[in-house]
Amino acid sequence: MKTWLSSPRSPAAKAIGTHHRKTWAFVIFWLACGTLAAQGGAKRFSLSGTLVDGANRPIAGAEVELYRDSRTVTDDPAVSDAQGRFSFSGLAAGEYTLIATGSGLGRVPYGEMVEAGSGRAIRIGGEKNGDKSVVFRVVARASLQGTIRDEFGDPMVNANVTLLRPAWRDGRLTATWSMKASDDRGRYRMGNLAPGTYTICAGGQGAPAPQPGPVDYATRVDRYYGRTCNRGIVLSPGQQAQVDLSPTAGSAVTVRGHVGNLPPQTPFSVGLVPEADDFGEPSPPGYPDMTQGTFTFRGVLPGRYRLHAQSYSGPGKPALVAEAPVDVGTSDIDGLDVELGPEATLDVTLEAAGKDLSVLLQSSVPGSHRLGYVQSKDGSFHFQAVPPARYRMIFQTPEGSCVASVKLGDAEMRGAAFDVAAGAALHFTVALTQNCGAIEARAMGENAPVPGARLVLLMNGTPADPGEMRQEFADDDGEFTFAGLTPGKYLLWSWAVDGPGATAGPASLEAVAPRATVVEVTAGDAVKADVPLLPAGGQ
Amino acid sequence: MKRLLLATLLLAALAAAADRELTGRVVDANTGEPIARAHLTIRFFQGQSVPEATLLTDADGNFKITDLPASGFQVFCEKTGYLAANQGMPPASPSNTADGRSTATMVLKMTAQAAIEGTVVDDRNLPSQGAYLQLVRQQVVNGRLRWQPAQGAATDETGYFRVFGLPAGRYYISVSGRIMGGRSSKALAYAPFYYPSGTEIAAAQPVDLKAGDDAEIKIQLPEPVTAYTVSGVVATAGQNANVSLMRQTATSTFEQYAGGVKWDARTKTFQISHVTPGTYLLQVMVPLDHGFTYASTTISVGSADVAGIRLEPAEMKIEGTVRLEDSTATQRVAGFISAQSDRNGNGGQVDGDGKFQIPTMQPGTYRIVPQITGVQSCVRSVLSGGRDVRDGLTVTPGVAVDPLDIVMTTHCGSIDVSLTPSDTPLPLNLTAYLLRKVGDDFVLEKQGFPGPRSNDGSEHFLLRGVAAGDYVVYVWPNDAQIEYANADYMRQFSSYGQSVTVSDDSKTPVTVDKVLLPPAKN
Q1: B498, B455 contact by CB (below 8 A)
Q2: Chain B within 8 Å of A262 (Cβ-Cβ)?
Q3: SS percent in chain B: helix, strand, coil, step 5
């Protein structure tokens, strides 16, 4: 089973629910601890709690692990007693996470978020947090199973079964997914699921759907299995739901074309990438037949795609690239010709080299390229074979620093989108500064902070054309500190997570632009900001 | 000009597309009953492209496809509950029928699959998630009986697993449990074992499966044992290194992966946790632009962490030249040189000057197999440092291999193998095997598939490109498990083989009286 897709952060950190980019909060926190220590030894605290199920009944005999910074704190996990109680003592001040494990429970973090496996941190010690007592509610896992059958009612072996769960990412409502293949009896099982709303889909594995009866080879029509989905399946705690699916075989088309300007005897690749790839619809076609600069994709289902072609001239030599949108309807496409052009390159130089900076080049084309982080120790970054498109650069800065400026020639480009044309060679210069600010954001319900609420900070761009954004969950106190911010104006939103397992979020930031909380960040102290929750449903 | 050429090719293709049809039937190999809605894929081999057509059999197991191209094709057949089957068909001959039509008929026999399913519970009798079950069986590889991994499966959160698509046979199950929950952070691990218990396969209980069997077993993991950490450094400038630890068992070459590996690119150090006591092969591969460097060492984990290991990866490659015997300087040789061991295989293209390089070798003993294109040739000698290494070139980390000097000759012989007609039906997939004696053992020199039958009904197999030497010829079904490399094993079948001596430019007829069928096993 593939893992849930995640935003680019450490899976280990995510698995136990520690937050990303909270360095600034830690700095303040450890300053406080240092003061305490100087006054006569570090004070120790305790964390106790009660493990209960969804109906508030105690859960006995389950193991409760305590983590700090992705590591277990104690040698042995606590085991809940008959009343579901557990406790840890002698703990240094800090942020901790809890994970409960037991037969039938799965592995559940305290304050479970909508993103599977992630939980909320618990602060112990400090000025306002002494010993802590929590109610650790563990909701029983659900499962989804069934049989995939073809149009004749026969079990489909090795069918693609995809489980989708609504999630809010990169400024829009999308989905996380996991995938399995059906067994020899057409059966599948998705287990250990947090209660919530799911979509389950089944499709072929790119293999053509066979035709009954005699077939004329010359006039045959390819039929491929499209994806059939059952949407809006609401799983309650502990439910073992049965959903059978039968993918329909639909006519598929053939896409043929030619890659022009290909040097003789040069290997090349061609890919057809569905634009709406978040939901995997339409399915990407299989590998094409490629001969002498021509390519043939068979079994392409209708939908919008992007064709990407690239030649390989050898290591260290420039590649030739081409990219084109392809609308596939119900007829074959012949003569889809693309002309290879020189690759675009993009260089970034960091002033005051030696800083531990990462650069992400993110395309604005849906379903297209996110060229990934490039890390550098010497302050120079090189992206090669950049397909022509509109991009933004996203920086992951070292602790305590933020981006002061991004220059392209004399033009200031910090946070701006830019177009990369074929053959372009762009050179950016980045300067960092220590004069950064922070926002201590608190998700506010009608009367109180809301633990676990989603907090979204738009770093650059506009709600209509959003650029980089940070999206986090509020901690046990409903707070999250966004650190390492360049002074300037920022927009913030927050919304409640609609119960365990389900996400509610706005369809886009543009839809909720008038409800944004505007925060002016200055260098130095953190700005406190109460961010009112969006109304139910996030709209 | 290009369009004209395209049009010419198109016309040629149309002309070749004779009105050819294929009819056939899919049946159960054991019962002979027709199989309805079997899924057929017909793949044609036309240059580099492999167009295909798919169809289903009808209620009587019959199928028909018309307007086929004249090229050769392969029919693949799948059906739930059966092992996949396939059968090839050579290109149609132009004079099959008077009206130019050609009709091919085939019967595809499908064998029912076997499956094993069951549950795994841990030492506390709780469902064990993430346990991996690897089926192991004895199979003949390169003429020798070896333990080979077959299919495997991991348990789900209920401890359930299912392994399917298995041919009938005797299987052993290796079980690698995973500690879940609170104990996972401790230095504890389940030692891998063979079902139902024991670390050696000799003590394990086999699962014998017949076609159609659906066996069910229950497995309990033993108490976890104290596990240790293996750590060290890799002497490399590269950022990435693939470090792996594989358990070595005494009775087999089968390997079990162990431990989780952490690699620190900054310090070039590795740490493998949760390793249970045992003997392991520690390997590292460091990727290069082309290929990788490699190092390995055997370590023993007892009752303490193993630290301070230093691995120094080196590039291991085979290079050399290939030339034709008595050739002129202008006669160039094109082709591909492959190196094949029981576990690995790799190869390299011969360039215009007859030079070749096989860049990314792993340690082992390799057989060198030259495949020269454009001219019918056979091997005269493969020398390395003046020694003939054709059947055994050893590649060792840190030891450079002397360049190979491969000499090919065009003065090859050929062998026309005829199989004496028999009253009993012949098994499917018969193949002629040409064995050459090397020391006390045999190596497979060539194999040949049946050609057209002669008028007396005998099957013929033509073996071309045979170098001068002494050989033994056998005929057996190509799916039979014959330990041909083992001369002791083959002695019992000496009456099935025919000795033959091949000289330069000769054509030698050989008659094989009977098909070698493997002895039945319990």
Answers
A1: no
A2: no
A3: 5, 55, 40
Three-state secondary-structure class, residue A478: coil
**What are the angstrom distances between the C-alpha of B268 and each of A378, B236, B308, B310, B502?**
18, 7, 12, 10, 56
Return d(Cα A93, Cα A126) in angstroms, integer. 6
Q: Do A154 and B113 touch (CB under 8 A)?
A: no
pLDDT band at A367 (very low <50, low <70, confident <90, very high): very low
- The number of residues in chain B equals 522
Give CA–CA dist A70/A507, Å, rounded.
33
Contact A214 B182 (CB under 8 A): no
- Model pLDDT for residues A169-184, shown as the tens digit of each residue: 666 666 777 889 999 9
Which position has the token pair 């996203």? Answer: A394
Residue A385: in which H helix or E strand, if any? strand A380-386
Lowest mean pLDDT, pick from A514-523, B18-27, B124-133, B292-301: B18-27
Residue with structure tokens 């840890």?
A88
Partner-chain contact B37 A76, CB within 8 Å: no
pLDDT band at residue A263, thresholds of 50, 70 and 90? confident
Find the mean pLDDT for residues B385-411. 90
| B353, B384 Cβ separation under 8 angstroms | no
- Which residue matches tokens 């307007």? B67
Q: Please, which residues have CB within 8 angstroms of residue B446's CB and are 6 or more apart in sequence?
A: B433, B434, B463, B465, B466
Residue A289 host element (H or E)? strand A289-291
pLDDT at B185: 65
Longest dimension (CA), chain A: 90
What single-letter amino acid sits at A466? P
For residue B96, the number of C-alpha atoms closer than 13 Å in the C-beta half-sphere is: 16
Among B65, B129, B186, beta carbon nearest to A215: B65
Residue B139 or residue A476, greater confidence = B139
